[in-house]
TrEMBL record:
Gene Ontology MF: a single term: oxidoreductase activity
Glutaredoxin domain span: 5-60
CDD domains on file: NrdH (cd02976)
InterPro entries listed in its UniProt record: Glutaredoxin, Grx-like_ET, Thioredoxin-like_sf
Keywords, sorted A to Z: Oxidoreductase
Domain of life: Bacteria
Keyword Cell wall biogenesis/degradation: no
Record-level GO BP terms: cell redox homeostasis
Enzyme Commission number(s): 1.20.4.3
Name assigned to this protein: Mycoredoxin
Gene behind the chain: mrx1
Record bears the keyword Manganese: no
Pfam family, one: Glutaredoxin
Length: 82
């Protein structure tokens, strides 16, 4: 299991941009993986989302996953302790 937050997304995804900006504004570091250029990442996102390419897909160090989360969902997860 990773010790860091991993965010799968694409550069053209407005929700990905918003989620990245949200985490950055709170000083939260994360690993960004663009599924448009990483076939293995595309496969992982499809596995997580049962065949769908839903982004952003965010995987937390505790193994929990948020898919297309709102800022309030991200805030709630961060407050619960990633």
């Amino acid at each position: 299991m990773s010790e860091e937050i991993i965010m799968y997304g694409t550069t053209w995804c407005p929700d990905c941009y918003r989620a990245k900006s949200f985490l950055k504004s709170r000083g939260i570091s994360f690993k960004w993986i663009d599924i448009a250029v990483d076939p293995a990442a595309t496969t992982e996102v499809e596995r997580i989302n049962k065949g769908n390419r839903s982004v952003p897909t965010i995987v937390f160090p505790d193994g929990s996953i948020l898919v297309e989360p709102s800022n309030s969902e991200l805030e709630k997860k961060l407050q619960s302790g990633t």
